[in-house]
Amino acid sequence: MSTSVTTEANSYETEVPSVSGEVMTAADLLATSGGAQRYELMDGVIRAMSPAGNKHGKIAMSLGFRLAAFVEEHGLGTVYAAETGFLIQQDPDTVRAPDVAFITQARIDEVGPVDGYWPGAPDIVAEVVSPNDRFSDTEQKALHWLRAGSQVVWVVDPAQTHVTEYRGVSEIRVLSSDETLTVPQLLPGWEVKISELFA
């Protein structure tokens, strides 16, 4: 039995052996991971992800570094790097991996140690737009995070040098490069000028 694998950047499919049949679980995906290829799981179907390009990785690191430094200094929770999987749906399982993620300390204490994928969505998610990404796909991904429980989703667009901030299905703002990212309810006192992410 095999499972269809879709590569996002090139939109072609490759057949790979499935661990559990046509529908894979989060446990199957965890057993598959570890090589050079990145994967996500969408409704039990494994999806191959192309490695990020130079600009994409630099911007994700710039945002992640600024978040992590502040969060660690103030003991607010944990910031996760790209490729960290979050189990946001079960039966069939969906595991997604954002470019940057943050979970509050209260939730970390409540859940306790996790060996596999974090059970649930991060409180904050950041996704950096790649050159081949379509706007409709990026927006759907942001809304998917919100439905899974994320409080804030940032879609960082290097081509347009702006950030689209999602705080709800009907609460969406486009922030220009001269504006500032803030999340006072989760990260009181933290801010970063959007232009700094693209420097």
Quaternary organization: single chain
Assess the beta-strand content as a share of residues. Answer: 25-35%
Radius of gyration: 17 Å
Placed side by side, the strands forming the largest sheet appear as 5-8-10-11-12-13
- The helix count comes to 5
Mean pLDDT: 87
CATH architecture of the largest domain: Alpha-Beta Complex
Share of residues in helices = 25-40%
The first-level CATH class name of the largest domain: Alpha Beta
Total strands: the figure is 15
Query: What overall form do the CA principal axes indicate?
Result: globular
- CATH superfamily placement of the largest domain: tt1808, chain A
Sheet of most strands: 6 strands, mixed
Ranges where pLDDT stays below 50 over 5 or more residues in a row are: 1-21
Distance between the termini: 48 Å
Description:
This protein has 199 residues and is α+β, with helices and mostly antiparallel strands. The protein has helices at residues 26-32, 54-74, 105-111, 135-148, 194-197, and strands at residues 2-7, 12-17, 38-42, 45-49, 77-80, 86-89, 94-96, 100-104, 118-119, 124-128, 152-157, 162-168, 171-175, 180-182, 191-193. Strands 5-8-10-11-12-13 form a 6-stranded mixed β-sheet, with helices on both faces. 29% of the residues are buried.
